[in-house]
Each structure stands twice: as C-alpha cells, then as structure tokens.
What does this fold into?
Amino acid sequence: MRLSRYFLPVSKETPADAQIVSHQLMLRGGLVRQTAAGIYAWLPLGHRVLRKIEQIVREEQDRAGAIEMLMPTIQAADYWRATGRYDAYGPEMLRIVDRQDRELLYGPTNEDMLTAIFQHSAKSYRDLPRILYHIQWKFRDEIRPRFGVMRGREFLMKDAYSFDLDEAGARVSYNRMFVAYLRTFARMGLRAIPMQADTGPIGGDLSHEFIILAPSGESEVFFHKSWETLRSAEDYAVDAEDSTALQAFVDSMTADYAATDEKRDEAREAALGDDLRQSRGIEVGHIFYFGDKYSKPLGFSVSGPDGSPVTPLGGSYGIGVSRLVGALIEANHDEAGIIWPDAVAPFKVALVNMRADDGSVTSAADEIYGRLSDAGVETLYDDRDERGGAKFATADLIGLPWQLIVGPRGLANGVVELKRRATGEREEVSIESALARLTA
Amino acid sequence: MRLSRYFLPVSKETPADAQIVSHQLMLRGGLVRQTAAGIYAWLPLGHRVLRKIEQIVREEQDRAGAIEMLMPTIQAADYWRATGRYDAYGPEMLRIVDRQDRELLYGPTNEDMLTAIFQHSAKSYRDLPRILYHIQWKFRDEIRPRFGVMRGREFLMKDAYSFDLDEAGARVSYNRMFVAYLRTFARMGLRAIPMQADTGPIGGDLSHEFIILAPSGESEVFFHKSWETLRSAEDYAVDAEDSTALQAFVDSMTADYAATDEKRDEAREAALGDDLRQSRGIEVGHIFYFGDKYSKPLGFSVSGPDGSPVTPLGGSYGIGVSRLVGALIEANHDEAGIIWPDAVAPFKVALVNMRADDGSVTSAADEIYGRLSDAGVETLYDDRDERGGAKFATADLIGLPWQLIVGPRGLANGVVELKRRATGEREEVSIESALARLTA
It folds into this structure.
C-alpha cells in the first residue's frame, strides 16, 4: 500500500482525554477515531490489526472443534425474558423499541439466544456435544466508557457456547476452550495467565479469566513467578481429542497459584514466599461452565441413548477481540510508539523512501515495493514527499515490525538500511539481502 | 467437516410464512434461522456462504483501489443532524436513547459519519482522491420485512464512499466502482445489469442500480437482449488507472438500453422492437454520485494546489452482501434445492458415505475425506448413520457443487460415483480419478 494513497491520519499531539498509553497511541497512530462516547470507527490501519486478531481467534476456535456461525446484533427481548435475565441485566443493556413497539436490545452476550436456537434443532443425544461460536459486535452501555477500545460500549467479541450431555463431557468442552485460549494469546505474543474467577452475571461454578500483565490493568492479580516465562503456542500443543491428556494439561496449567483480587488465597500466598508476584492485569478472555442455567428455564432437553430426556449442560467462552488491540499495545510499546508483534502487525514492512523528489531513489524504492508486493509481503510504502524525520517518526509510531529505508547515500554504496522496530537494531545491507530477509 | 459433528438443521417441510424460493430453501437448508421479524441468525452453512460473498466483494473493492475500514453500527444522531438527514430519514431509522439520554441510531448507511471522519483529517488536495469502504451490519426498520434475508431489517452491506477534487475525478471514482461491481457479480456467476436509477434519499444526479433477473424480483425491468449473455469477470478487465479506457468501457456498458420501471424511455423501447426484453429484477448493488450534498452542509473543504479552498465531491456505492445470499439462490436452484455457483459454495464437495455401518465403506470414505482435507478441498462429509436416500436429499438441498458417493457396490468394483449438482450428471470413476478431478 502506498501511503500517498492510504488513509492514515497520524497526529503528534497526545489527546488530552486519553488516559492510558494504548488509547493515546491508537488515536495518534490513526488506528481509530471516536465517533461517540465509547464508540469507535476503525480506520484502515486499526482495522487491519483487528482482522489479524480475529483470524487467529477463529483459527484456534476451529482447531478446537468449535463451529462458526453468526448471530445478529439486535435481539428480541423475549429471548431474555425466557431465561429470566431481561429484568436482571440492568442499565448496561441497550434497550430499543422498534416502530411496531416491539422490545429489542443490542446483544451484550448470547447465551439466551443461542440456547434457544440450538434447542430448536437439537433433539437427540447424537446432536451433542457441540461448541458453536461467532465473532460479532456487542454493546454494553457502560456508564463511564474509558481507556479507548479497552472499555468501549460497542466492542467486538468472540463468544462460544458448548452443549454437552453430562458433566464429564462439559468438562472436556471447557478444557478444549481453555487450551484454545492459551494458544490464541500465545500466538499473539501475549503472556495470558488463566486465573480462577468469579462468574458474575453469566452464572455457574467454574470459571477462569485469562489475564495479561500491564500497569494500566483494571485489576490487581497475584501469581507464581513461573508465569513470568513467555510461552509459545507450541508449549500448548495437546490433542483436543484426548480428554485425559486434556485434563492433565489443564491441571498442570492451573497448578501454580494465580488469582484475581476477588479470589485470593492468603494461605497459598504465604506458602509461596518470594515466589509470589503481584501486578495489575487486563482481562482478555473469560470462560464459564454454568451447567443447566440456561437449558433448564428454557425446558431444553434431548432424548438420551435410552430414550429418556437429558438436559444439556453448557458453558460460554468469550474473547475481547477489539479489546485485544488495546491490550496488545499496552504490552508492546515504547516512547516512540507501538511495537506490533509479527503475528498481528497491520503490515510487515514500512518501506521508507527518504527522497521522493529524487528520481533514482524513487525508482529504487518503487522497485523494492513491487518486489515485496509480488512476494506477498504486506508493505506500507511511504512514498510521500515529506522529510525523512517525519517519516521515521510515523514508522516508529505505527510500529510495523520492519523498517526498510532507501536513501541516496546508501544507494550510492549499493545498500539500504533495515531496522527491526522491537530492538531498534539497524543494519546496512544490500537490496537483495534485505529482500531475502523480508520474504523468507 | 464431518456432518456428525456439524450443526446443519435441515428440514423437509416448506415453512408456511416463506413466500419466495430462496427464503424457503434458506430455512429448509439450515442456512439461517429467524430470531425476530426481519432478523436472522446465520447458521454455520449460511455463514460460510456469507463470508465467501464478502470476500469476493472485498477483493474487488481492493482491486479498484478502495481502502477498507470499519465504522460502528451505532451512530450519534449528531452526525445526521449536521447534514439535515436526521429528521428527513423517517421511521425506517432505528432510533435509540442510551442510559445518559443521548440520541443514537443504528446506522442504515454512512454518508454522514464517514464524511465527518474524513473531513477531520483531510486538509489538503494531496489527501484526495480516496475511496473508503466498510462491510458492516446495517439496520432499516422495514414496516413489512419479508423475503427472508432479501428484505430483512438487520443486513450486511458493503458501502464505499469516494472523495474527489473535481467532477472529472469524481467520475473516475464512479467508473471504478461501476467496473468493480460488474466484476464482483460476474465472479459469483451472476448476470447483473447496470440500469439508470433514481437516487432516492441518498441524493445526487447520477446513479445506477445493478439488477439481476429473477421472477421474484421486486421491480419490473426493461433491457436490450444483449444483456442475456452471461459474462465473466474477464470480460470486465479494464485498467482502473486509465481514466480514458475506464470511461470508454463504462460508456460501452451503458450503451444498450436497460432501465427500471421509474426510468423507462418509451421512444428507445419502441426503437428496440423485438430486441426489447422485460423481466422482474432484484437490486444487488446501487451506486450514486451526489457531488457536494454531504461536504457542503458539513463545511468540508481542503486547500487546493493554489491554496484556495476546494469542496470535495462525493459518491457512495452499496452492495447488499446478505441480500446476495438470497439473490444467488433465486438465480440458482431447482426443485431439489440450491445449486451454488462454485465461487460462493459453502463447501466444494458433499462426500456421502452410503453405509456408515459398514467398516470397509467407512474406512474408504474416511480415507477420501482425509485426502480431500489434506489437499485443502472444502468437504462436508456425511458420515452419519442414516439411509442413502436421506443423505442424497440433504446433499441436493444444500447444493454443494460436487457430490462424491461412496457405497459398497461401487467399492467392490473399485469405483465411486461423482455427481455434478448443477447438471445432475453422474459418473462412476476410480477413487484416484475422483480425487484428481476434485483437487485439480
């Protein structure tokens, strides 16, 4: 993409109303623009990150055997009446009346609707187990939306719902999602710690939050120092079809102490001594097992193998997709701007033409751009007629993993400069060797 | 995907309230489920089609130089007040009041918001031209939602917005979208005819609807018989960077008569004589040039090359992504069910195991499934313990382009049956040759 034809409204000023660094950098870097309190338009660069994150989430859901579908944003109030949640949910639910005076709402979550949809078709034990998910915009009418996309009102969530015939099966579904979550966050380069959590309005008796560490986090968390190690998705390779291996793995992942403020265990903390760590954390995922909480009020049962009715047991599993954009920046930035992990970077390379007014520099940069594009390398080509300093500042601010700088002095010696954003490391290399590195 | 683990609630009964064939087949084929009047959940099979269509739309927008972003579904009423459309829009706009008594609405379209967003950052002639687009859910509170996803209330639309410095430039943007639309629909196997159209509430003086022919269409259309030829995307290959070639191409595409009911020209029709055709049509896309209709009330100007202010001229360009699912079925079905064009089929192959209770048939079918999956062929594997007749009926109903049938008699002779859904042609071929055909 040529920057001269792109829409990347970067800004030097730090917006006064943005309290945390991810919010500041998302506004300054032209990733989002606020359009109402707690509601954001995703500008082209931010949209690309959102889609990268969404795709990683999708791949890991699919890998865990969950099936993608898509529920609407607007729900009939009746779904919530049937489960008794309509009145209970409170003012965070955006309630709507249509032109025919029917009561609707903008879905904040989908347990009620999805259980009803699944109930309509699932009649036999052979229709279970199933995990269904969708990635859809939700709305929660927060009284004080803040921290940009981290606590917005309209937000993108992946929510999955499992249906099983018995508790053992429901535990397998839960464990599959548990592992999928560890893998999902690890693939984004995040260290997400599973912590026992309260179940809140979703209900149920088993729940984990997945929390990443950041000074701006909304809650205080306590954990064994073993969680300081950054793990990769390969460390979470376990066969989702093998329920015994799955349980053993989840047990090993929950053996070391990790708890949110509400779930602290003073005895365990005391026993840990120097191995105890404390930090602030950001919740990026939350999984729940709630049994028959939704199937029972809806009268949902299927015929079991012996013909007798069985009430399916359920769980739900959420990942804050749009929130992750902010969380990733909280975890990956420096004074100059964002440092995108490779897996979620909006483009891989910032190609900087230092002298757009110099024909030979421009023709060299154009050729490099063409070759990177042909090789399928996502490249943002700064071909604008601007000074080098402004271009460097923009490249650092938007944080693409690589910067490839083409200038007259280098070209005279047959070299370009390759900079790794994360480390700041710069190298002068030949054009061929830069291309080989970036297309590898 | 193994059907025994999928969520595909097909039904034999034709739903009483579904008047047109696409609506009937989408319900019967388990593609969607209605969750409120004019609002649908996209079940896994329907969701896959929706994403295929969305991706073709996206690729052709990108090819035309449009830049993807994503605006929220909920808009502040102020955007619409600023352009004077808030009161004018009428009861189809879903108006919402939040907990702080702020007036919001569920966006039915985005001219007002996007012009404001773009205005905020575009200050110079160098920031133009631009075409920005998003693919986002919209809501129009239809008084009588009907025809399933064809005239639903919550619907997925691709809407693009162009900004140019002068009329000649605006015409180039318009032409680019014109060609992108022809290509988009042709890639889906649709014959979409561009017709001069009224501009309605969007405003402006130049507009084309893209209409496909179907007996269930909402409007009567009239056209030269030349449009009976089905064209492919290759027939619409024109360099989007060459404005002269672009205009000549658009002129050639609008030379032959084609008009909706409101835009009929009796003199031209009379001159056509036997070459005139009449049909009912479904609108799948609509493009508008509206000049300064939105930039003027917003006071949007940029500094021109000589420093003097220039008011950008705009157009907007919509494709009904969710509506296309219905339109495609209207254009592609028979008595037995849907016949998906290859480009939008949810899976390429329906692999039918005729005897799931027979170990050797199942192991052959399992192996074929594994090899198709390894080759990246999207396969829905009917591994359920059901009779062959029910499996054939399901396969025909959901309309995947190919059916590969594995049964005991064939296997004894070393063959499987390969059926092309569109033609009904069946062939007995060896497993290897079937695999070679499907992976080619």
Notes: The mean pLDDT of chain B is 95. The first helix of chain B runs from residue 21 to 28. Chain B touches chain A through 57 residues (CB under 8 Å). Residues 355 and 361 of chain B are 6 Å apart (CA to CA).
